[in-house]
Amino acid sequence: QVHLVESGGGLVQAGGSLRLSCTASGLSLNRPGMAWFRQAPGKEREGVSHISWNGDATRYTDSVKGRFAISRDNAKNTLYLQMNSLKPEDTAMYYCAAQGIGGRWDDPGIYNSWGQGTQVTVSS
User: Who's near 17: CB < 8 A, 6+ residues apart?
Assistant: First the structure.
């Protein structure tokens, strides 16, 4: 069973940077695609970025393109999200997820393992 633990969230001023990490256990023989989602209060969970099993392909939602970068280190079973030029609208709980089946990368339904989340708050 895959277990995911996020870290790296916090409070930052607009224009600042944060680096989120997601450490996975139970992935030693399984290299699924992985993603970051976020959910702000009163809003639906939104796909932020996805990375293929070997890191060769990445996807981003339009609002973070050019500001966020997803990466993974399979030797360390760790997923990262480097977030630069943060804006107040990036404020949300951020979750990492491991893909279970094929489908649209931003569809939460294709992911079968989720972390508990790490809070990111961007002040104006």
Answer: 82, 83, 84, 85, 86
